[in-house]
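Entry 14. Ran structure prediction on the chain below.
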Amino acid sequence: MLETINNSIFFYIIPFILALGLSLILTPLVKKLAVKWRLVDEQDEPRKQHPSGAVPLLGGWAVICSFLLVGSLAWAAGWLTDARIGNLQILAVFIGAVIIAIGGLLDDKYRLKAWQQFVWPTAAALVAVGLGVKVGYVTNPFLSGTGPYGRSLFYFGPALGMVFSFLWLLGMMYTVKFLDGLDGLVTGIGAIGSVILFTVSLFWDVPLSGTSVMALILTGSLLGFLPFNWHPAKIFLGESSLFIGFMLGVLSIISGAKLATALLIIGIPILDVIWVILRRIFREKKSPFMADRKHLHFRLLDMGLSHRQVVVLLYFLTALFGTSSIFLQSQQKVLALAILIVVMLAIVVIILKRYREKSLNNSYE
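Output, structure tokens:
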């Protein structure tokens, strides 16, 4: 028994420590490279408020390189493949990461148009799905059967499974992209999410699973970057922030289609993105990809919360709902998702009330 525990600790902790240490080393080097190449985010828009002026981009490269280097060592050691995950799926993850890194570099350098930006996450998702990262079934929480918790399973046909998985990965990537508006926000939420998916994989995946190892490598890579990305940020993720959404989407699939868990982890950002996109299209009649200061995190700032208070609040909600998924059955997860929607609506009501009060006060002055 003691030997099994020691093997498990070695199996999980070593990749995490390596990724953490490598990210701590690579981030300052990537920062210097970004400055040398003049890949910086200028304070040239009203929504950007950098206390220190221009901030280097390309930080996502430190995260991606740490993940790929440690992941390659773990793959060579035979720690990533198991009964669920084959070599093709691992290759899909690595190729997808490289595609996102290339696209992120080009966008940070040349500020690509929206359709040009779209090419890279689309390519990453297509490669992942084409090499086997796809959902085969989802649990029906309302019918009894032979699946987890005694629930029935809804199986996807090959074509439907590929389409669903492609849209899932793309949606996760763009949710994270739109969320990346405050220092440390996406990095921290990504780390919290990967820890939760690691924990879920311990309960529901095969023993000593590759999913668990990849989740911990991602966690270490993000935590090593976070001190440099914490407010006031010394470096930004840049367009390579898409990698975090890509990995959360992939891990939620290969850990046994834990889609409800992923939805609980980034449920509030997803609801925020849906609301913002619908408002831009139907109310403001403009492109859904146009940046502004109307995302939830900016609204909370406008209410008077500090930068760090907003980030910590969103960390807390992510951890609260994400962790709940570890202990909930399928039907209970649906209830948790409903509660999450209510929480989001309550936040929106409070924000709108504060905006009206602020407008009234301004009109009397």
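Residues 2-262 form one domain. Will compare against last week's run tomorrow.
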